[in-house]
Amino acid sequence: MWQRVARPFQRLSRRHCDLISEAVCVRQLCSSSSEFTDGSYDGLYPGHIPTTPTQKALLAVGSGVAALQDPYRHDMVAVLGETTGHMALVNLRDRMRNDPEGYTILTERPRIRLSTLDLSKMASLPDGSFGREYLRFLEDNHVTPDSRADVKFVDNEELAYVMQRYREVHDLLHTLLGMPTNMLGEVAVKWFEAAQTGLPMCALGALLGPLRLNTSRLQTLFTSLGPWALQNGWQARCVLSIFYERRWEQSVEELRQELNIDPPPVIPSASKKRST
Amino acid sequence: MAASVRLLVRRVTRLSHGHVTVCPSGPSGPSGRCCWAPSSCRCFSDDRNTHFGFETVPEAEKAKRVYKVFENVAQNYDVMNDAMSLGIHRLWKDTLLHVMNPQPGARLLDVAGGTGDIAFRFLEYIRSQRERQRRHVARSMQALSWKDISDVYAAREGGEDGPRESRAVVCDINKEMLKVGKQKADSMDMSAGLSWVVGDAEELPFDDEQFDIYTVAFGIRNVTHIDQALQEALRVLKPGGRFMCLEFSKVRDPVLARLYDTYSFKIIPVLGEVIAGDWKSYQYLVESIRRFPDQEEFKRMIEDTGFYCVRYHNLTGGVVALHSGYKL
């Protein structure tokens, strides 16, 4: 008699164990840590970490505080951008889709990496061409296109690509706008990006960046550089919709005209201290 | 349910077709997983697998990956401990010392001791014990006659062996963690009586019967072969020596367990990302806690190794368990 009573309990406990082991099995099947494998990964793209809305909120707050405390923590700035940028990314993606060149980018998914750039060919281009100026910018400021963090917390594969493209285009924007990587140059680019993309992270950077500038630079920012950056941000074509990789030979002036960007009113002198 | 049935079926068909696949060498993926990935993945069919958090990896891989995790987190390890446990880890470690109650002259081996928390507490405890002893001796000497006092001084100067100095050896497989510990010791000016040794818990670089106390705090769950680590502990302890292990364990109360799970899986990786910039390492750490045997099973493992009087205390409702056993 006891056996008959015990049987349903046994079945229940076995089912519970099955559920747990199934959870572990499924996790085993699709888990990874991206630094070790490329073949398979948890989530929608390599490096994707799925998060709940609560986790995103916590990440946004935490990364915001961390980035304010230590602006050199680029990973925190990146996380802040990813967790707060959903609406702006959708907007950007739609603008890209509506532009023929942007649509090509969304389908072909080019990545700007040292491995994909033909540096010797770019160095042989004439001065004033976009490729040559970009290379000069990289050398002068000792930066490399590979230093951009991968996108982790965007829960849509296409939007994650848009975010990644935005990060990779940032250096190209410096070249297009003629801004160095000192604080003033960075703030100017941030103002341009905030007007262009509407990403909350850019807006926050645009608001808080000036706090770290001295008075004379603040003056330059508010009188000439800032308004120019904002104006051009609004009037320019969507900068993410340009297939830069096919335009290295084009001259910077011509590219600026095509994008509807005016040349900068004043170029802040690149100080010895490189700040990004 | 259906997923696990599918897994079983696939495993059976793979075995039956003699499907031999080899995983790409180097920083390769878990072999248990790539057999189901299309095309280019091959697994040695006789590779022993173990768990790395909720993943399955070849045993040879696990040590490397654990090393990488702790290399990444070493600089922020103490800050993260305070943040994740809201400072409670300090109470756990203090409890370990109180239960240990070491006497002056004891020799401690702290395995997986990394940043040295246990070793520092040990030396502090010994120092305060010694102070207490000295005060006790001084008090008892208040009513002595002059002759007795001079006898005591003579005996002290006579080259009688002073009390044996306590030594603490911190052993860890990870050089980064030891580096952080050494920096802490230098900044706190506590380097006297401390040694820092690189070593593997499964194969300790010490002779037999060297230590009075062996501790391992929050480290043994990262070892690939826990039974080997326990064997080594038995080997290096003197007869009468004590084995003590502080480790995360199973929470019995279902409400607390639910809260603890939510906190572990949802909040801790976020903290890891914000403070240390490393989500994945902290996800591994919370997963590895779930993979560790519970209180009773670990107690049995310790008894099987050959320790006696094995007991455990649950701290914070079972979040942490302190296991202790003696070598006789």
UniProtKB/TrEMBL annotation, chain A:
Enzyme class, UniProt record, top EC level: lyase
Catalytic activity from the UniProt record: a 4-hydroxy-3-methoxy-5-(all-trans-polyprenyl)benzoate + H(+) = a 2-methoxy-6-(all-trans-polyprenyl)phenol + CO2
Pfam family, one: Coq4
Key word Mitochondrion present: yes
Keywords recorded for this protein, A-Z: Lyase, Membrane, Metal-binding, Mitochondrion, Mitochondrion inner membrane, Ubiquinone, Ubiquinone biosynthesis, Zinc
Cofactor(s) for this UniProt protein: Zn(2+)
EC nos: 4.1.1.130
Membrane topology: Peripheral membrane protein
Main location: mitochondrion
Pathway: Cofactor biosynthesis; ubiquinone biosynthesis
GO molecular function: 4-hydroxy-3-methoxy-5-polyprenylbenzoate decarboxylase activity; zinc ion binding
Entry annotated with the keyword Lyase: yes
Annotated GO CC locations: extrinsic component of mitochondrial inner membrane
Binding annotation for Zn(2+): 170-171, 174, 186
Location(s), subcellular: Mitochondrion inner membrane
Entry similarity comment: Belongs to the COQ4 family.
Job of this protein: Lyase that catalyzes the C1-decarboxylation of 4-hydroxy-3-methoxy-5-(all-trans-polyprenyl)benzoic acid into 2-methoxy-6-(all-trans-polyprenyl)phenol during ubiquinone biosynthesis.
Self-association state and partner proteins as the record states: Component of a multi-subunit COQ enzyme complex, composed of at least COQ3, COQ4, COQ5, COQ6, COQ7 and COQ9.
Protein name as it appears in the record: Ubiquinone biosynthesis protein COQ4 homolog, mitochondrial
Organism: Scophthalmus maximus (Turbot)
Automatic annotation (TrEMBL), chain B:
Example GO BP: methylation
Catalytic activity: a 2-methoxy-6-(all-trans-polyprenyl)benzene-1,4-diol + S-adenosyl-L-methionine = a 5-methoxy-2-methyl-3-(all-trans-polyprenyl)benzene-1,4-diol + S-adenosyl-L-homocysteine + H(+)
Superkingdom, natural source: Eukaryota
Binding of S-adenosyl-L-methionine, residues: 115, 172, 200-201
Gene Ontology annotations for the cellular component aspect, listed alphabetically: extrinsic component of mitochondrial inner membrane
Subunit organization: Component of a multi-subunit COQ enzyme complex, composed of at least COQ3, COQ4, COQ5, COQ6, COQ7 and COQ9. Interacts with PYURF; the interaction is direct, stabilizes COQ5 protein and associates PYURF with COQ enzyme complex.
Protein name: 2-methoxy-6-polyprenyl-1,4-benzoquinol methylase, mitochondrial
